[in-house]
Design goal:
Blueprint (H helix, E strand, L loop, with lengths): L2 H16 L13 H10 L7 E3 L6 E3 L2 H12 L6 H5 L3
Antiparallel strand pairs: 1-2
């Protein structure tokens, strides 16, 4: 990654954190991890999902709430298969 692209990435992350980017999550071409990153960076649903203490991974605090409230708002229903693959 070049210095110019690092600056662009930093600017993008800043815009995401500030909420200054409007995204149609359901119809966007963003991947599942990209959508999760935006949700986590904006602290949109920290009662259900948040960064782990080390900031290197995330944790789902309330799986039922995440599936009920977050998945339908940001993801197509087929994306919930990820939670069936990795049982608790």
């Amino acid at each position: 990654m070049t210095k110019g692209s690092q600056t662009s990435l930093a600017q993008l992350i800043s815009q995401i954190q500030q909420g200054s980017i409007q995204i149609d999550f359901i119809h966007s071409s963003l991947t599942f991890p990209e959508k999760l990153f935006i949700i986590l960076e904006r602290d949109l649903h920290d009662e259900f999902i948040q960064w782990a203490g080390n900031g290197l991974c995330f944790r789902i605090i309330d799986e039922d709430g995440f599936i009920t409230h977050v998945i339908p708002q940001y993801f197509k229903r087929k994306d919930t298969f990820l939670f069936d693959v990795f049982p608790s």
